[in-house]
Amino acid sequence: MAAARQSAGESFLGRMAKSSRERVREARKREPEGALLARALATPPPPPLRLREFCMIAELKYRSPAAGMLAAQDFDGEAQVRSYGAGGASAVSVLTEPDEFRGSLDDLRQAAGPLMAYRIPAMRKDFLTDPYQVLEARAAGAGGVLVIVTMLDDAEVADLLACAAQCGLFVLLEGFDEADLERIGGIGAPPDGAASLLCGVNCRDLRDLAVNRDRFRLLAPYLPPHLPAVAESGIEGAEDIAAVASIGYRAALVGSALMQAADASRALAAMTAAGTQAVRSRPCL
Asked: In angstroms, rounded to a whole number, what is the distance separating the alpha carbons of residues 150 and 2?
């Protein structure tokens, strides 16, 4: 069980999980789950996730624990989201964790609105521990959620997936090692009602939060063949995108590089083109 694994790095996820559960307790005091469910299901349907030869999930995040602040005080989040839409993102990941990432559900709401014009779904990226948070995402306009299997046991993952299916959300299942990918692969096909399941590989070392892009290559043989694979963390440009696409990844999630790009739309389009070309050039096995 993931919850039983011990390592120095998991203390970060442990802190995040503890904080996440506390946020749920406080949120339930403000709005009972039944009321939230009704509000979530009454929210207009989000755009569906449309998979392509190679997909880019562009990320809106104001701070990273590893890199510090990524956005200036006068940063225009809505303009950044529109740049992602114009650049051809397949989805936009929005950080909603408030302490380490300075995110909020308001950021998700404000991103989901403009993305409707581009028919692109927003994805809630957070340290989700409870189906209540999936309902929060749906009520804020999200079309998908991130689920970090490393910090959850199988029952918790199943509960989050069931709620996502009820809400019609896609799920990016994130893992860090072979054991995580084996668990993700064992989930099988998407449950009835789920828009899509994706398998994410985060190349960040949980012990010190350092990026190790070799992990994409080392973990590629363990990717579940029935789920599109997403490379996460450490992607800096088109060359990195081509590298992961050439070894079997069909999408990448990029945050810091796009947040700091002079022209996020142009950078995103270049990454998408590099990934698509690498997929087309990859020999059939």
From this structure: 5
- Taking residue 137's Cβ as centre, other Cβ atoms within 10 Å add up to 31
Whether residue 122 contacts residue 48, with contact meaning beta carbons closer than 8 Å, is answered with no
Asked if residues 41 and 138 have their Cβ atoms less than 8 Å apart, the reply is yes
The answer to whether the CB of 164 falls within 8 A of the CB of 145 is: yes
Q: Which two tokens stand for residue 123?
A: 């994805």
Q: Rg for the chain (alpha carbons), in Å?
A: 17
- Given its phi and psi angles, is residue 240 left (phi above 0), alpha (psi -120 to 50 degrees) or beta? alpha
Gap between the Cα atoms of 273 and 166, Å rounded = 34
- Identify the three-state secondary structure at position 158: helix
- Calculate ∠ Cα 248-211-81, nearest 5°: 75
> Does CATH place domain 14-42+49-281 in 3.20.20.70?
yes
CB 62 within 8 A of CB 103: yes
By DSSP bridging, strand 122-125 and strand 63-64 are unpaired
Per-residue pLDDT of the chain in tens (285 residues, 90 and over written 9): 444 444 444 588 888 999 999 999 999 999 999 999 999 999 999 999 999 999 999 999 998 776 677 777 778 999 999 999 999 999 999 999 999 999 999 999 999 999 999 999 999 999 999 999 999 999 999 999 999 999 999 999 999 999 999 999 999 999 999 999 999 999 866 555 455 899 999 998 766 778 899 999 999 999 999 999 999 998 999 999 999 999 999 999 999 999 999 999 999 999 999 999 999 998 765
Judged by DSSP in three states, 87 sits in: coil
> In the 8-state DSSP scheme, what is residue 170?
E
Q: What is the pTM of this model?
A: 0.92
Contact 231/251 with Cβ under 8 angstroms? yes
Tokens of 251: 């999408």
Domain boundaries, the chain: 14-42+49-281
